Amino acid sequence: MAVSPITGSQTALTARVDSQQVKANDKSEQKEQQAEFSASRTEMKARSNQNIVQAMFGNGKQGDDKAMNILYSEIMSTINAELGKEHAITPDKVAGQADDYWSPENTAGRIVEGALGFFDTFQRQNSNMPEDEQVEKFLSIITKSIDKGYGEATKVLDGLKVFDGSIKDNAEATRSLIDDKLAAFREAKLGTATQEGAE
Hints:
single chain; mainly alpha; 2 domains
């Protein structure tokens, strides 16, 4: 039985099929290498981020201070966005302060002071409103802004996987102190308004 000789077109066809198979294999290998490289990069980035987070927040009090700075900045930025930046106490104004500067008491005090700094302006803008309504409406706006800022700050800290232990305790204590200070402001203002109305 005679085998027919291979023609030029058959050789070209075989070469094309082989070439396509090699290209497909090359592409498959490239995809695998890219996937491995991408996984390696993601893992390296995650480790790097973990090291950065550890360096920022893993130093006891210093880490707590940085977390409180985030909390303060987020809350004040929402208040400023709502009411304007004219009276704002911004992070650049608070650099290099005393050791207890970022304690819950001091942080809450600065947040409330910054927020209440807008009250006179708010009163002037709403002069047709009785004072008790001014106080209630103002506190409603401020409280919503504080809640939003607190939520954003805790989301950032939680995303960094540091919202636990003393950082969480300090944040929650700060939020509670803010509520107490706003309640005291409300009582002082409405108490004064009631006494003036009785005279």
